[in-house]
Amino acid sequence: PTGNITVLGLGAMGSAVAARLRATGYATTVWNRTAAKTQPHTAAGSNAAATVPDAVDAGDIVIVVLLDHRSVREHLEPAADRLRGKVVVNLTTTTPGEARATAAWAADHGIAYLDGAVMAVPSMIGTPEARLLYSGDENAYAIAEPALAALGGAEYSGADAGLASLKDTALLAAMDLMLLGQLQAVAMMRTVGVPAAETAGEAEAWLAAMLPHGKEIAAIIDGGAYDTGGQSVDFDRRGLASIVTASREQGVSAQLLEPHLRLLDELSATGRGASDWPRIIDRLTIPKQES
Ligand code: NDP
């Protein structure tokens, strides 16, 4: 491949990215706040730059893998003039709002900005199992795509720079609640001496059997009528109340389950107890403040 790529940040993820680009044949220039971390990379054939502006000058594409939004802005802002006309791909984990703010800043400075979200751990970089989401400047994606394809499965989500982070955090939210649910099961079964591993095994099979229902729930939500006659809000309330009581009987806190029950109670109290239970999504959407 042709082109020079700069990698800012050589933590676990930045190092994996730089190594993979190098292995693919790109000329790479690296920078890291703690300069010692550039040593293995220069030994393997990368150039090291002493400052961010020098690193930026060396690359057509600048890949940023720092800690957070703040560290990204701290180091990109002083180099704004040197970044003009370049493609910046920010793989640092940020929120959708932070991604949009950096995209607006980049647009003000004539920088083609792509925001990325890495759905992989460093050891997966360069394998098809790594999924990397991108959003922002479409032209920047077209330019960077061949290099980004070397890092794993690359997906462009759209021109709104916040989309990649949004999808990443939405899927992480799904994972978080699912694994917390499994923890609740483990806590309940441990009260009678069942090891966590045993409950985790049972939960894995049970959750795998239940996951396909997610699409049926989605169809109800997309239909928008909540009148399919499937499990209702009131039916679900009774079921969940039993789970909450069972937990407490065993001396296990139900604090993870209580917010779910509260949402169902609110729906029932406003006369929607007979609706399909996925109507709960209405309670999750916070109305935008009138301005
Ligand atoms: P590390 O903790 O391994 O590395 C952090 C990097 O950020 C180092 O290069 C560090 O420099 C640099 N850094 C931190 N603060 C500053 C600062 N104020 N100014 C300049 N540089 C700074 O983290 P990772 O490499 O694992 O993560 C990097 C990004 O990748 C994060 O946003 C993370 O969320 C994301 N990511 C990581 C994944 C993972 O599994 N590791 C998975 C998906 C995303 P120094 O060496 O000088 O401390």
TrEMBL record:
It is an enzyme of class 1 (oxidoreductase). It comes from Glycomyces mayteni. Belongs to the HIBADH-related family. This is NAD(P)-dependent oxidoreductase. GO terms for molecular function: oxidoreductase activity. Transmembrane segments: none annotated. SUPFAM superfamilies: NAD(P)-binding Rossmann-fold domains. Residues 160-284 form the NADPH-dependent reductive aminase-like C-terminal domain. Gene3D superfamilies: N-(1-d-carboxylethyl)-l-norvaline Dehydrogenase, domain 2, NAD(P)-binding Rossmann-like Domain.
